[in-house]
Amino acid sequence: MKSKKCFGKELSQLQRIELDACTQCGECLKHCPVQEVTGKPEISPPEKIRMFKKLMRETDSIKSSLFGKDVDPKLIQDFTNAVYECTVCGACGQNCPVGLFNQRLWPVLRKEMVMRGLGPVGPQANMPKVVKETGNPYNEPPEKRYSPWFPGDVQVAESADIAYYAGCTGAYQAQPMVKGDVRVLNAIGKPFTMLPPEEEVCCGFPLFITGQHDMLKDLTDRLVTAYKAKGVKTLLCSCPCCVNIMARDWPIYYGKKLPFKIRHITQYVDDELKKGRIKIKKKLTERIIYHDPCYLSRGVGIIAEPRSILGSIPGIELLEFDRHGVNSRCCGAGGAARKVHHENAIAMGRLTINEAVEKRADKLVLSCPACYEKVNEAMKGHDRKIKIVDIMELIAELV
Amino acid sequence: MSFFLTLSAYCAFILFLIRLFSHIWSWINADKEPASDPLVNGKISPSLLWNALLDILFFRRVYATNKLLWAASWTFHLSFFLVLLRHLRYVLYPVPGFIVFIQPAGKIAGYILPLSLLLILIVRLTGGKDRYLSVYNFFLVGLLMLTSLTGIFMSSLFRTDLVNAKAFVFGMVTAAPATLPESRLFAVHFILFLVLLPSLPFHLIASPVTTIEARKREQALYKVIHEK
Q1: Rounded to a whole number, what is the largest CA-CA distance in chain A?
Q2: How large is the ipTM?
Q3: Mean per-residue pLDDT for A35-45?
């Protein structure tokens, strides 16, 4: 029987093959936002893979069976630093010459560290306790989840085919965004429901991305059961990270197909615009630039819908970042690293701002609460300024 | 020296097999279920397989990321493959017609191989801020460069008796050891090959799998939350 100390036990068959497939060509470094702001190859994707393979060899090989599992503490420390400084944006895998799926590989390597008490790092470690106590990773009271921002004129049905999940980051850290969401849903006119604030708990993504998977099944079961009880057929959400875990992982934790569809809010609004149920009435003579969130574009393939919505605004000129769509560059908020490596996150956020300013955009349009919070924070004290707006916040002003 | 090299060759081959089987064992023993994502394992269609085959044969993913690296690495892998095929004449008897046929191409590939390695090295070392070259890759490139250069010297400047060389290698393959040819260059070339054999990278067999998986994943991306 293998020792519990063996590294690599959490990896799937394909992920083990992926570790061997890495040619260490270093092409991914050109696409890594952490490399861009730190210039530290020692925390780059091929180095993470090299170090983890060494950890596997030192604990689970013929040599280790014969001569013992002697793991270099410095190697463990170096690997922990590298895997937790990463924003898990997945740009490295998207541009990998052998097609590694790093957006899924890095969280599993983080899980490997958590299983041995070597991760997570900094404030991330408190997350399971905080989520258990408050239902959100920000240690905010559940009763304040909706009250500070929810518009008084928006009607929420007790039960409906459509449900809206605000998400913790939106509700507590990017309130203009979620306010825009519900105003647009209200303008469409179809009834939609929401869970009571104490029932709308964390989707599990912050725990998943930091490698802390123990509570994921429980959180999934609670949320799925609650929406099912309301007779929900379609669950809408604007947070790319929530949408990602709901669509990709909830069916695994729930143990079967979800009883409702998961949709990003831009899909729904784009459909309703095309059906004519909502119309953009005001003209906007501005140059706007749209940033693709990593977990929306690379994660679930939502690329055309936000552009279709923005393109329907009369008078608008839509610009693109050099890296857009599935190749978008992380804004700095990814991988729960923003709370630990704050300076990296700010530097990445400023790269996004700088490019938008250089392209002479009047507005930077986002569609992710973590991006919204971090890019706004990055602009504080920065010499370049641009108006930052969430896509639904913008649409709510124009309908 | 003949005995030492023969013994080393068997050891290198055994070491290579141990490495190969331990990696395959590690893959077989891993959890066969995807870590979490059922959509990672999308469906395989003939068009997907065809595209994946082209990705694998022509390194299309490398081409998409770095044209110069693609030119260098594709040329290297092709020339390395041809050189390996050319060398089969030393271990097969009678030599198949196909191996005889590719001998001229194999010889040209032998000259191209170190040039492509040099280009790989230049691309890697002139990457500016994003320059990255692992110790293992540096070792591999150096080893391949030396092996190919000693091979070129043997076939052009300091000719080795090919009949004796074949007798030595073929004797090893048929477990009937023969005497080492009287050529120091051959001994160096052979020793370098013995170092190379157990050091071969496993991306040679793993990367085709991940390339196919990447195709499947990219095809499945627009089905994650776009299903009707």
Answers
A1: 74
A2: 0.91
A3: 93
